[in-house]
């Protein structure tokens, strides 16, 4: 019996193949006829599933939600907001430094506070220039690395938010507590008292020179607690290491040595108290680690009674920036500028297809 049924099945399949090869097609019913005859097929199902649906009338088709294609949306407009936030706090820092400078006591009346590091290490004049040069090199390396990142918009808004928040903290600590100069070598600019126009000029000079000694813009005193140079040296290294391949250990080592040497040179130059550097390192590393822990863990993004990290004052800003980012941002790179642009590529391809089709039609006629 099995042999007879198999032969009939093969004969039936050969008949269908011959009909198709001879140009015959099976008659199809319209939608109305199918509904009348009760032979309508469930749409969106394969033949096997249709047969199963007929055999089991209680079959239910469950629509699965489509998986989001873009897990890491660029959202450059959010990056722009983060940049404005960082720029505002950097400008605010220069304003606070100008205000605090007027309150710094003269070094003749208030000598430097005792510092254990200064007791054992004498001041080296050129050390602070080395610190600033190292910071500029690291910042340049990070800028180049950031330009080649595939998800540079997400990483950029994280960098701008963190550095903006750190400088906001710095504005608060500088304003509430004014420390005397760390050394007698400081040559502070004269106080202006109520000259508002001269203060604005000093603010513009600080902004144009980046607040660096090598540019001649670091002439004000009072910006000690905590160290802005340590913030930049530490934060830039953390971003370089986090968003570069793990097997680039030599690159990480070089950047770490430059960062560590720059921080040590700040102390060797006696430009900051040791506590300024320690607090700057602590706040920078903790804010970086907390932010990235919350960004990489889905459960930490949700505000709940057990998620104590969501009680930070900056959590709403963090959620606004990171709510659409799904998971850890992969360390992948791409060319910052594609050439030729994709718009020219697509238009040329479409034009070539149209031209080729027209030529084929002319040949056929």
Explain what this protein looks like in three dimensions:
Residues 1-50 are annotated as: Disordered. It catalyses: an N-acylsphing-4-enine + a 1,2-diacyl-sn-glycero-3-phosphoethanolamine = an N-acylsphing-4-enine 1-phosphoethanolamine + a 1,2-diacyl-sn-glycerol. It is a multi-pass membrane protein. Residues 221-293 form the Sphingomyelin synthase-like domain. Belongs to the sphingomyelin synthase family. It is globular and about 95 Å long. The chain has a domain at 90-322. It has helices at 2-21, 31-37, 47-55, 76-101, 116-120, 127-147, 152-176, 196-209, 228-242, 249-268, 274-296, 298-301, 315-322, 342-364. It has 365 residues and is mainly α. Helix 4 runs parallel beside helix 7 (152-176), helix 4 crosses helix 8 (196-209) and helix 7 runs antiparallel to helix 9 (228-242). The protein contains 14 helices and no strands. 60% of the residues lie in helices and 0% in strands.
């Amino acid at each position: 019996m099995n042999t007879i049924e198999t032969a009939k099945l093969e004969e039936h399949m050969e008949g269908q193949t011959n009909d198709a090869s001879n140009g015959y097609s099976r008659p199809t019913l319209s939608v109305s006829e199918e509904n009348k005859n009760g032979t309508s097929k469930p749409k969106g199902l394969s033949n096997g599933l249709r047969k199963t649906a007929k055999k089991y009338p209680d079959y239910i088709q469950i629509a699965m939600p489509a998986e989001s294609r873009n897990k890491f949306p660029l959202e450059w407009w959010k990056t722009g907001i983060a940049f404005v936030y960082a720029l505002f706090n950097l400008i605010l820092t220069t304003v606070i430094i100008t205000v605090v400078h007027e309150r710094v006591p003269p070094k003749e009346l208030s000598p430097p506070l005792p510092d254990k590091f200064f007791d054992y290490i004498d001041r080296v004049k050129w050390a602070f220039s080395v610190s600033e040069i190292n910071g500029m090199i690291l910042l340049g390396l990070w800028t180049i690395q950031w330009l080649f990142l595939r998800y540079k918009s997400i990483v950029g808004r994280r960098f701008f938010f963190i550095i903006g928040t750190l400088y906001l903290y710095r504005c608060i600590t500088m304003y509430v507590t004014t420390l005397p100069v760390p050394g007698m070598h400081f040559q502070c600019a004269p106080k202006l008292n109520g000259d508002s126009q001269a203060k604005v000029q000093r603010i513009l000079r600080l902004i144009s020179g980046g607040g660096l000694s090598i540019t001649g813009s670091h002439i004000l005193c009072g910006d000690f607690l905590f160290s802005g140079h340590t913030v930049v040296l530490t934060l830039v290294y953390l971003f370089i290491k986090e968003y570069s391949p793990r097997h680039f250990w030599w690159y990480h080592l070089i950047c770490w040595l430059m960062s560590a040497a720059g921080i040590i040179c700040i102390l060797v130059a006696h430009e900051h108290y040791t506590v300024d550097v320690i607090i700057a390192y602590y706040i920078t590393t903790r804010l970086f680690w907390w932010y990235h822990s919350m960004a990489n863990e889905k459960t930490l993004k949700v505000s709940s009674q057990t998620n104590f990290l969501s009680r930070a004052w900056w959590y709403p800003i963090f959620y606004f920036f990171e709510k659409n980012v799904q998971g850890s941002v992969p360390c992948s790179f791409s060319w910052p500028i594609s050439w030729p642009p994709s718009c020219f590529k697509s238009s040329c391809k479409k034009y070539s297809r149209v031209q080729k089709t027209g030529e084929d039609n002319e040949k056929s006629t």
